[in-house]
Amino acid sequence: MSVVGIDLGFLNCYIGVARSGGIETIANEYSDRCTPACISLGSKTRAIGNAAKSQIVTNVKNTLHGFKKLHGRAFEDPYIQAERAKLPYELQKMPNGSVGVKVPSFFTDAERRSVMAAAQIAGLNCLKLMNETTAVALAYGIYKQDLPALEEKPRNVVFVDMGHSAYQVSICAFNKGKLKVTSAQFEQLCAALLSRVEPPLRAAMDQAKLQREDIYSIEIVGGATRIPAVKEQISNFFCKEISTTLNADEAVARGCALQCAILSPAFKVREFSITDVVPYSITLRWKSSYEEGTGECEVFSKNHAAPFSKVITFHKKEPFDLEAYYTHPHEVPYPDSRIGRFTIQNVVPQHDGDNSKVKVKVRVNIHGLFSVANASVIEKQNIDGDHSDTPMDTESSSKNQGIQRSQAEQQSQADEETENAGTETKTASGDKQDHPNQPKAKAKVKSIDLPIQASLYRQLGQDLINCYIENEGKMMMQDKLEKERNDAKNAVEEYVYDFRDKLCGVFEKFITEEDSHKLTLMLEDTENWLYEDGEDQPKQVYMDKLQELRKFGQPIQERYMEHEERPKALNELGKKIQLLMKAVEAYKNKDEKYDHLDPAEMEKVEKYVSEAMNWLNSKMNAQNKLSLTQDPVVKVAEMLAKSKELDSFCNPIVYKPKPKVEPPNNGQAKANGEHNGPVNGQSGAETKPDSAKDNPQQTKPHGEMEVD
Predict the structure, then answer these.
(1) Which residues touch 134 (CB under 8 Å, ≥6 apart)?
(2) Which uninterrupted H or E stretch holds 586?
(3) How high is the pLDDT of residue 423?
(4) Is the pLDDT of residue 527 over 70?
(5) What is the average pLDDT value for the chain, to the nearest integer?
(6) In whole angstroms, what is the distance from residue 441 CA to residue 164 CA?
């Protein structure tokens, strides 16, 4: 299982992967860890990354770059219309009204959904869509061993990220094993105006309600932070030296890979909780039955903790719509503040005609996406005389009472989302409720799930996404086939150039002048064909053309290779024959080294070696009579095979080891010692073996006769 983190930048992309107990930024096919965010569309294939960037000049109208800012935007968006004039490629309107192509760190809901759809089309299982500054903070904090404990005052760190087209500032509070984002300000810059460096810094500090002395350190990331003037302005604002602990280019990808490893069951990572924020406040609006008005409620305020879920209670008699939108459109770097419309279906009055109590759960999930997660109706049934049933509370209401909003208790979701704890209850203007003064009644309650129809603005439908996935699969197959076709074409071109050079070089002695002239003409005709009729041919045509060329060129190449390798093979075979002949001669001369060998076997060896020598001499005599332009009589492979045959037949016989001679037994040794007597002045007692010591069982009583 691969666990990766992707930094989708405006200009470049980085990919971090969890492996070998750490995070590594991987290199692309060009051995470069930085991959340009660029795609070039050809007539039959696509180029991506470095290969696409090289075609910006040659294929300018079909080379896409800077498309990060197009995610989730409508075609009629004034920003898109202004950018159209600057882009060399053509933009088109998609079926859902968003922008497409023919051929800030805090994204809004539509932008996030666009990226999620792109990941799905690319076949990626996105575990979490992270804010860039959150990924940077994770990459910073998880390796810090000196963070304050949970009960101590947190360490505040400012992260300044200035890339190719975006500038963002975030302030994060760190404790051991915990990270909380407290606010962030995002601005898109079209030009490097240094006067705009300070305002986001000041706004971030104001929203965080911090003073300069509360800041522990300032970390800078992003390519543009290498500009000395930018560093100077940031340092002067905080009255501190800036820190470059993190890799300015790879910090986001590394942080994303860390988060992916934390979420993956395949990796064991130290515990580190992350509390992110909702960057823009979100409000729900609905049609109220009271005086035909509308009700609204801000469900998530700016910088609210995320992920988070809330449950809202409505009193309705019929299906109703909830419209979600960003509360303050001027704060959103996006012209349309609408998020989506959610229709709660199958709502009917209670049996007694009262409004039904509908509980709606809204949430911002782990990806930062807003949704109405589920809805249910609380159905009550009056039961007489049964006091064991659970009573249902009927809330009293007036013009200003009719909707209740409460935060859900913290719990672990099945979709790996963490809901923060809270017990806040807030009342907003809403619907008129029947029987406002009706007292509580004994009732049996039943919760029934209600279907929800979601209509998200500029959200790609699943049918369209499936169509795109299918098209992506077709394009990948087309890319593969086109690569194979180009490889086959390049193989023909390479063979033409390589063989033509060798005809005037190493192959010159191995082909007649007449054949060389014919083959040269054939190579020239093939080269001309490649740039004319053969410019765009199927793969099989190129393979057939290469086979035709090899039919004429292969014999020449083989003659050259045989000539180069023959001396070595001849020398090896000749040495083996000489060694075996010497062994046979030594055997005939009664050399004790071979006196244990079988005469019949040695006779076979002599005959086999003699035949091999005669075969080699006859072949080499015939070969020496041929010119270099003729095919060889004997090939190197035949010599190697003959050498192997000699080894397998003769070696087991000639190099058969002598049988081992068994040492004499103890009785013979004793007899030899008694008859030989003392040697070199030694006494008999010294030379006589101690039989009693060596063999206790043979010890005889004193006075008995010893018998050999």
Answers:
(1) 170, 179, 181, 255, 274, 276
(2) helix 539-588
(3) 31
(4) yes
(5) 78
(6) 65
Q: DSSP characters for 277-292? A: EESS-EEEEEE-SGGG
Residue keyed to tokens 């992003």: 222
Structure token digits, residue 302: 């700016």
With tokens 């990948």, the residue in question is: 476
**DSSP class of residue 488?**
H
CA distances from 208 to 181, 298, 459 (A): 10, 21, 33
- Phi then psi dihedrals of residue 622, to 5 deg: -70, -35
Q: What is the pLDDT of residue 570?
A: 93
**Nearest residue to 395 via CA among 345, 431, 360:** 431
Question: Both tokens of residue 560?
Answer: 């050259």
CB 133 within 8 A of CB 104: no
> What pLDDT is recorded for position 420?
37
Nearest CA-CA partner of 208 in 154, 287, 245, 130: 154
Q: Are strands 155-162 and 46-48 parallel, antiparallel or unpaired?
A: unpaired
Give the model's pLDDT for residue 519.
Answer: 92
Neighbouring CB atoms inside 10 A of 560's CB total 18
Q: Which residues of 113-144 are buried (b: 16+ CB within 10 A; e: fewer)?
A: bbbbbbebbeeeebbbbbbbbbbbbbbbbbee
Q: Which residues have C-beta within 8 Å of that of residue 588, sequence separation ≥ 6?
A: none
Give 574: exposed, middle or buried? Use CB within 10 Å, 0-12, 13-18, 19+: middle
Give the Cβ contact number of residue 289 at 10 Å.
19
How would DSSP label each residue in 599-622? HHHHHHHHHHHHHHHHHHHHHHHH
- CA distance linking residue 531 with residue 528, whole number of Å: 5
In the numeric block, the tokens 């890319």 are attached to 479
pLDDT of the residue at 164: 65
Distance between CA atoms of residues 139 and 543, nearest Å: 51
Token pair, residue 15, equals: 């990919």
CA dihedral 131, 137, 142, 147 (to 10 degrees): -140
Q: Peptide bond preceding 307: is omega within 30 degrees of 0, i.e. cis?
A: yes
Both structure tokens of 132: 């860039």
Tokens read off for 141: 């904090």
Class of residue 395 by CB neighbours under 10 A (exposed 0-12, middle 13-18, buried 19+): middle
Q: Which residue do the tokens 């601005």 mark?
A: 187
Neighbours of 275 (CB within 10 A): 18
> Which DSSP letter does residue 243 get?
B
End-to-end CA distance of the chain: 81
Query: Cβ(248)–Cβ(222) under 8 Å?
Result: yes
For residue 157, what are the contacts with CB-CB under 8 A and spacing of at least 6? 137, 140, 171, 172, 174, 215, 216, 217, 218, 219
Distance CA 161, CA 515 (A): 68
Please report the pLDDT score of residue 272 as a whole number: 78
The b/e string for 657-685 (b: 16+ C-beta within 10 A; e otherwise) is eeeeeeeeeeeeebeeeeeeeeeeeeeee
* pLDDT tens profile 78-125: 888 888 888 877 888 877 788 877 674 456 777 788 888 888 888 888
Nearby residues of 378 by Cβ (< 8 Å), 6 or more positions away: 356, 357, 358, 359, 392, 445, 446, 447
Strands 155-162 and 166-175: antiparallel
Exposure b/e, 58-70, CB count within 10 A at least 16 = b: ebeebbbbbbbbb
pLDDT digits (tens, 9 = 90+) for 565-620: 999 999 999 999 999 999 999 999 988 888 888 999 999 999 999 999 999 999 99
What does the pLDDT read at residue 443?
59
